[in-house]
Design a protein that fits this description.
The chain is of the alpha/beta class and 236 residues long. The protein has a single domain (3-227), classed as Aldolase class I (TIM Barrel, Alpha-Beta Barrel). Helix content is 41%, strand content 15%. The protein has helices at 3-10, 29-41, 52-61, 85-94, 114-124, 137-146, 170-179, 193-200, 211-214, 216-227; strands spanning 13-18, 46-50, 66-69, 98-102, 129-133, 150-152, 184-187, 206-209. Strand 3 (66-69), helix 4 (85-94) and strand 4 (98-102) form a beta-alpha-beta unit. The chain starts with a helix and ends in a 9-residue tail after the last helix.
Length: 236
């Protein structure tokens, strides 16, 4: 698919994040491929997935654009979403239509700057779509200037500077869609349909929903917490 074809397919639609980490009940490429199939049948226009094995399985199962990431931890850096060139190259081999990277201002592995990582990749792969996972408007501005094709609100609320920010952050979406010319992807904290309606009141390109759809353990826990703790025994 061309870049424009992918962007057209995603426009004003729901991208479902199909991810399960080791130790979670649904972890495994077969599970994620089945989850992606269910998302497609429900009307999703794209999938966000973690890891080359999951991405390969999902791409075999469904004909939807994939936003690919690789989560990897490196000493001395909080950046873990596609942090280095090694993860980018793996995602290119996996065939991810969009590759998402942490584009925050936080220290990166080996002291590398975002510019040092991304600019050679941008030059080397002009036909590849790259998405910047951001936490602030300034980070999104910087990502656009560097040549990212899309920017997302993915990391708002998860960096030191944005901890405690209510998500989805409507003020951030308003500012990003007003100031930027590249497509803006709303991602993070969308649990309710009313929140989604609020998000789509802005000219966002698409919205990513993950936990609220694809993590039944967390969904169940949320309902259990809403029910309240019940002490004692029935009939006591």
């Amino acid at each position: 698919m061309t870049k424009q074809t992918v962007l057209n397919q995603l426009y004003r639609g729901i991208i479902v994040s199909c991810q399960a980490l080791p130790g979670e009940p649904l972890h495994g490429r077969g599970m994620m491929a089945a989850m992606a199939q269910a998302a497609k049948e429900g009307g999703a226009v794209g999938i966000r997935a973690n890891g080359v094995e999951d991405i390969a399985a999902i791409r075999r199962q469904v004909a939807l654009p994939v936003i690919g990431i690789v989560k990897a931890e490196y000493p001395g850096s909080p950046v873990y979403i596609t942090p280095t060139e090694a993860e980018v190259e793996a995602l290119l081999q996996a065939g991810a239509e969009i590759i998402a990277l942490d584009a925050t201002a936080r220290p990166r592995p080996q002291g590398q700057s975002l510019e040092e990582l991304f600019l050679p990749l941008r030059q080397r792969y002009p036909g590849q779509l790259f998405m910047a996972d951001c936490a602030t408007l300034e980070e999104a501005r910087r990502a656009q200037a560097l040549g990212f094709d899309l920017v997302g609100t993915t990391l708002c609320g998860y960096t030191q500077d944005t901890l405690g920010t209510p998500i989805p952050s409507l003020p951030l979406l308003e500012a990003m869609t007003r100031e930027l010319s590249v497509p803006v992807i709303a991602e993070g904290g969308i649990w309710e349909r009313e929140q989604l309606r609020q998000v789509f009141a802005y000219p966002v390109h698409a919205a990513v929903i993950g936990t609220a759809i694809t993590r039944p353990r967390e969904i169940t826990r949320r309902f259990v917490e809403a029910a309240g703790a019940q002490e004692g025994q029935y009939g006591a």
